Amino acid sequence: MAKAYDPAVHTAEHVLNRTMIRLFDCGRCYTSHINPGKGRCDFHFPRDLTGPEADAVEAAVNGILARDLPVAERELPRREAEKLADLSKLPASVGPDDPIRIVTVGDYDVCACIGAHAASTGEVGAFHLVTHDFLPDAAKGPTLRLRFRLEPRP
Q1: Which residues contact 128 (CB under 8 A, 6 or more apart)?
Q2: Is the per-residue pLDDT at 138 higher than 80?
Q3: pLDDT tier at 4 (50, 70, 90 boundaries)?
Q4: Can you give the pTM of this predicted structure?
Q5: Which residues contact 13 (CB under 8 A, 6 or more apart)?
Q6: What are phi and psi of 78, to 5 degrees?
Q7: How far apart are CA 40 and CA 142, in angstroms?
Q8: What is the Cα–Cα distance from 44 to 39, expressed in whole angstroms?
Q9: Residue partners of 120: CB distance under 8 A and separation at least 6
């Protein structure tokens, strides 16, 4: 059963994750929190973003959202799913023969996911990076925390 996430915010989180991977090669966030209209993602990252880097993240995410890419989901056998996505975060309760739900955001992102999503990135709205903070003493190592909110496009 899918988590009760805000579908638009959850879709924006997928785009933010892939953007961070493409810009900084840091991997997907290790934790996130999704609320209606806003979200937070924590990345293993050795420092805070500079102002221009934060602007680049926001612009890149908004560029993808504006492309109105379709968001699709499908269930695949594990052998096929592991060719497309990192399955290391699957819970232990997922057995070796259980199908894996793969979510794609157009040609931009693919990952295993159980959450609810918008039908396309054009439904998400405008992405605003609200804050970015470096947490050097985080329990899971150096962490970059990104908080964002969504607003309807004008």
Answers
A1: 58, 148, 149, 150, 151
A2: no
A3: low
A4: 0.93
A5: 29, 32, 34, 39, 41
A6: -50, -45
A7: 16
A8: 17
A9: 68, 69, 70, 71
